[in-house]
Protein 1
Amino acid sequence: MDDASLCQLIREALHSPQKAETLALAIDHLPEIKRYLDKGWQPYYDEALPMTERDVNRNINRFPQMYRLNLESVNCQNPSEAANVRRCFISWVMMILRRDCYDVKRRVNRPRIVSTSETIGGEDSLTIEETIADDLTLSGIKLILERERRSLARQMKCYIEEDPEMRLRNCHPRNNANLDCQLLSQKLLLEEPPLNPRQVARELTTPEKTIPEQTVYDRWRNYCLPLLRIIARELGYED
């Protein structure tokens, strides 16, 4: 599908559920999708794809908001405008697809879950379900909430790594482009184990320029954290 056709289909999908479904099904036919997918995720592609198609179908209205695109004013016959819409759409789909591949991988590799109908200690013993019956509803609610938090965490991780709109990379002091919010987020949140501001300051310090620990801390607290909160709300997090 060429840039102009994809651009037009995306615009129509914002107003038509049928077109949104057509757009979702077209994902598998976009050559960039498999080309950009890391080799480690490719074994999970076939199982993750229906999940990604469903998410794109349901959440297509979030796409232009995330990339600050006014698709009503985009000229899909203009090669540069159509190409930009395509780049943004591919980036958005890849973020969702990687998250879904991660879900599939985790499900495939997770330990066996014991059924609540299995007995504990022999035939005459209580089942697990009977044992925890009093707390079953509360536990179920907690489990659902925990899954939602984990889903958001995965989306945020993908967003930080991709930074599709360069909002994190472009948020830095005028006199130090290296102290950007993408780098700080990667260092302070995503590294295993995460670094602290003092360690980050040491890493960024060069013979020509010293980065104080307080500078890293202030930048993180006053600029990066508020920006990450905005992005989290855009991804569906509710305070």
Protein 2
Amino acid sequence: MKAKSKTIPEPISKTRLRLWLRLLKLSAGIEAELRRRLRDGHDTTLPRFDVLAALSRHPDGLKMSDLSGYLKVSNGNVTGIVDRLTEEGLALRVAIPGDRRAQLARLTPKGKQAFDTLAEHHEAWVDELLGGLSLDEAETLSRLLEKARTEDDAA
């Protein structure tokens, strides 16, 4: 008679590590595809799209320092992008009364229109790239990821 071999269950840390690697692979793949589509189809970049999106969410404008903090990038990176957007008539800088050093960046109507077009494409691309998930699966995964984030934030 054969002796039954007992398998030692894998520690949950290994399962979570594999999950993290899968999330990274998925995220990197989606980001690379979005970058490619923005570049090839719209002659723009993901950082530029992110600046347009942030300014779109703040129609009254954002201080340049707040914009860089919001996007978690350096002031220099944001300044270069906003400079180019301004040159193209998509954004403008407005002086802040009483603060000679600070400026607000905001979208022009042309910038808002350009962003709205990009945002429609971006949403459709993400929908396509995650099209293997049903509505229920996407909602469940979203809830689980939020739960993981919340538990991490609590620690």
Protein 3
Amino acid sequence: MLLSRDEWELVAMVLIVKALLFWYGMLSFEIHYNKWITSREDAIGLLNHWDVGQYLNIATLGYGTTGDARLRLAFYPLYPWLIRLLTPVFRSPHLAALAVTTIASMAVAVALFRLMKIDFDEAVARRAVWFLFIFPTSYFLHIAYTESLFLFFVIAAFVACRRGDWLYAGIYGALATLTHDTGILLIAAFGVEGLQELWQTRRWNLRWLWVSLIPLGFGFFMLVNYHLAGNPLAFVTVAGEHWTNRLTVPWAAYNQLGVNTWMSPPDAITHGMAIMLFVAGGFIATLASAWWLRPCYTMWMASNWLIIAMQSWDMSAPRLVLAMFPIFMLEAMVSRNRLASAALTVWSILFLALFCGEFFKGHWAF
């Protein structure tokens, strides 16, 4: 489908934000370490932290079952497969990865705009996209992580669902589950949408059954694990062994404030306080969605929040909250008030700069 002028402007906005973030990140590194970035390799190297290496290794070497290579079993395959597909074009796996995320981030902006326009006017729809791309952890939409690709499939699935295109909702949902594990939660969200339609029309719609396509991506990943490790749930074992994480009660996130007693202030903030604040903010937003948004969005918010909050040590909570995209719908609605709009914008940009700078310096930033 061709893009409208408004959508092209949003694409341009995404590219401008991306360029400014990369520039700011490089300046932060140069000032902090008193070292110039003099080559393309040096600049790209600033983006190669944490899980980036895992995705690039899967793209170039495939999955492994021994040593450090076994850790790759915990990462879903669609994103690294796309990297491998584009590597011959860009002659660099990392450049190919950045190309995938760039295309996906632009697609996210258009998809969210179209989803918003189903229920809101263009001004509100634009603001939702704006708040997504200035969210404090939105730099993950621009680096070699799955966030942009996953968020595109999720929002595209919601667009199809809201328009009654259940086949495409199932297809996009299956691609989401092949990108990230929480894509499976789309079943609950779309189930609620189907129940709402059934309540309003009193008619059973056989097209709802296309939702059954969503688990196919997850099932395929289990087959990959079974083929490689002899255990379809090997990725669960690997994640538990290496990242020492387990499900617990949601209020356990409060315990992470305890890191303030033994960690340095920078680590205590990113490993404790920030996590609790984002978990608490996600909870408040979930309650607000129950009042202001459709039930399917509330179900998506609530199920994602539970998965995030029930981790015994979820160091990535601020990043994972990005998937709770109805937050940006709520921000766009609240920002009809100019004072609220200014407060949300300043807060988002300040913390986006803080966390983005930390990531470029190689410090932990979710």
